[in-house]
Design goal:
The chain has 120 residues and is an all-alpha fold. It has a domain at 23-95. It is built from six helices and no strands. The protein has helices at residues 3-6, 26-30, 33-43, 46-57, 70-92, 109-117.
């Protein structure tokens, strides 16, 4: 074995890994314009909107027995919060992810002039 073979870099293989489309995260869904438009069309169907409104109205709510223990109140509040987050996230699938804006470039010319004026 020669010295050059010892330091030879291994060959890198790149292959496409297929993912099950039903295992996408919400951000991955929202980053695809085709899927966002599909969600927009689906949410525009009056029957789907009525189903979502029905589910939102059927939320467990905050009506609780005043004598209920604190732990039970916390559990019910958590369930209600998770329920509302789920419905909100479902509706947000139709909104594409906003692309980040370019960061402004720093301009130190004004700061340098100020330092010169102040004799710093």
């Amino acid at each position: 074995m020669s010295l050059f073979q010892f330091f030879k870099k291994p060959v890198v293989k790149i292959q496409v890994v297929r993912r099950d489309p039903f295992r996408l995260t919400p951000d991955e869904w929202r980053s695809d314009p085709t899927l966002c438009s599909l969600a927009t069309k689906t949410l525009a169907i009056p029957e789907v909107r009525m189903m979502l409104d029905t589910l939102r109205n059927a939320a467990h709510g905050w009506v609780m027995n005043p004598a209920m223990p604190f732990e039970e109140r916390a559990i019910r509040a958590s369930v209600n919060e998770g329920y509302m987050i789920c419905l909100t996230e479902f509706e947000k699938l139709s909104q594409p992810v906003a692309k980040p804006q370019a960061l402004p470039m720093a301009d130190f010319a004004k700061a340098n002039r100020f330092d010169e004026e102040m004799n710093l």
